[in-house]
Design goal:
Maltoporin, Chain A, 22-stranded antiparallel β-barrel, Phage tail protein beta-alpha-beta fold, about 800 residues, disordered N terminus, 7 helices, mainly beta
Amino acid sequence: MTRTASGRRQARPTPTNTRLRPLAMAIYLAASGLAVAGATLAPLAPAHAQAGKSYNIPAGPLGPALTSFASDTGIVLSFDPAAVAGKSTAGLHGNYGVEDGLNALLRGSAYRIGKTAAGYTLVAAPQQQQARATSLPAVTVVAAADAGALPDAYAGGQIARGGRLGLLGNVDVMDTPFHVTSFTAQNIADRQAGSVGELLDKDPSVRSTAPTGDVADAFFIRGFAMGDNNIGEIAFDGMYGVAPNYRLMTDYAERVEVLKGPAAALYGMSPNSGVGGGINVVPKRAGADLTRVRADYTGSSQLGGGVDVARRFGAAREFGVRFNGSHQRGDTRIDHQSRKATLGALALDYQGERLRATLDLIEQREDVDAPSRRPFLGAALPVPAAPDNRNNNSQRWEWYDSKERSALLRAEYEVHKQLSLFASHGKASSDVDRLFNTPTISNVAGDTRTVPTRAIFDVHRNASEAGARASFTTGAVGHQLTLQWSQYEDQFNMGSRAGTAYLSNIHQPLERPAQNVAAPASVTKRSATRLSGVALSDTLKMFDERLQVMLGLRKQRVRADNVGASAYDDSAVTPMLGVVFKPLAKVSVYGNYIEGLSKGDTAPASARNHDEVFAPYKAKQKEIGVKVDHGRLMTTLSAFQITRPSGLTKADNYFAVEGEQRNRGVELSVYGEAASGLRVYGGATWIDAKLANTGNPATTGKTGVGVPALQLALNGEWDVAALAGLTLTGGIFHSAEQYANQLNTQRLPAWSTLDLGARYPAAIGGKTVTLRATLRNVSDKSYWSGASTWGTLMAGAPRSLRISATADF
């Protein structure tokens, strides 16, 4: 059922495909089957790759919490009970490595963790004059490691020290020949990021191209657009086509990983041909038993909350269940806009001696009244002044309703210690009914014209993969070999009916009479895509893993059927070469050459060679960099170049693939603990984006659309020593000027914003309740945050307050 413009519900036209129901989806899927010490050239120990564990240690006395942690982890921890008597901890919740977990428990206690020959001990924090650590009888518990677990969180807990690199699996950051950032669940919770778009705005090489109040996430990574058409562009647990299509909420995310640069060899070709980088959402799994409840308030009057429940069962706790649910409803900070969002995510897993299997089921709904839109800017117009950041050019009677369903079944079987087989199958559907459209700015005064359109979208996707992983040695060289087959399919069905155009203004929006635009008479197939391929990779480890070489090759077949246009069927091979060299124990020098893949263009009907189909486009990245692990602070400096071909119609009216955008840049990132009680993450990215061989002297050599020369994001948090448990947070964000057209005549000014926040574990009703508050855009600055490749402009977010209270039971 759908609603009319007046709010009444009416029967919907039947789409060409039957929608996937949750029970049918589950049955279908179930039936589908299953660094190192020393700074000399002495031999280095294997890089740290032990996965972290999930903990649920409640707030309370520090001594028992430390003992519980040592017991759960199986470490030797020595301390004097008298030294911690009377001290408390805010508890530990989430996935941590050993040292990070201990230091999180010790936060605000004037102690930090130290190492001894036997294990761990407590030492005074740097501001103390002398250490008080005293050895005691050790408590030792042996715990089996989970082979499928994630890399540890790095010091500070905000960023992980490794990530899942598709074909290569879990890789420690010091062994990765790429620039990777992996945001943790702790980071998501502390920043109160409700969507992937809100979270990734904190990364210096990522820019969100969806304004506040819009209905879909989209990004630029290293200066190239990703997700403008939003068809399965973000990977879920390493697979495209499974994640929700338009917006990804973060309640079910354990990690959100960003790989900088093309990733076709690692993940396969992205469905929407993104080449600047890849985004992967890693789902939460059941660890320690957990019952967590959250209440939150956002914007003008938007209230909500969520639950996170995890349990493990079985004689060896081999069965796990985790459920995340949330609901928000109310007015936002955008004028006459309201939003309702509901999410349910169920994660099941089995961790046997040889067999590991997971099943993820997600359903989320989002309804928005008066959704924000990104206005088109006429080709010859100068950029008008940015409107007040609360202005809404949409009408009260315009709306958007979406329903997203996703499911993914994975299985891995260890045939031998050195050989495992894996297979996965996932399905997803997106069901959208909406009445709105994008306004067009017609003059410098900001007057607009909009044709509201009733549209129904039905998007269906499925993805599969299977393969084998093996490890072995040949002489003095170690190998980690992966062979993978993968396939992705989508079908896009649509129907639309236009209303009557109305006029307004971005600075002084005008209210117009409601229009009752009927639903389209039919929803028909508009396009279908099928991507299939085979990939092989080998990681060679030499000289005690001081030198690692990663080789990969993917043969990809691309089939596309656009109704009313020529079908497309072609293939290409994309290689990957990565090298990591460790001249010192905690220094990695790396380089990579990797390619991205995009569907080739079809010559337009107006060209002399109309309907000619071109081979897939290959984007190419070359990158070098250095990573330094300072102990509790990680820094990465890289230089890169990405080139992407593009098609154009030449002066003789012949369509050819001769254009190119070339982005050269330098990226600096840092994360970890800069000092005791001071944690940071962020950095800066400088990009020189040039258009080449555009076929037009007026645009050749110009700067690419929507690419600022400098992006800066620096996030920090400080534990206030005078009030144990209180943490102050903040973020500074800056973008240099950017252009909205290829002629570079439409320029958006540079902008800077500031976020501030705090969190505090308070004792309420016998429970420790973590209170969080975040104030975004403190100065309430109005600005254009960016431009998209479509020629649309994004308004910056208004000042908004978000507060939440979280408690464990």
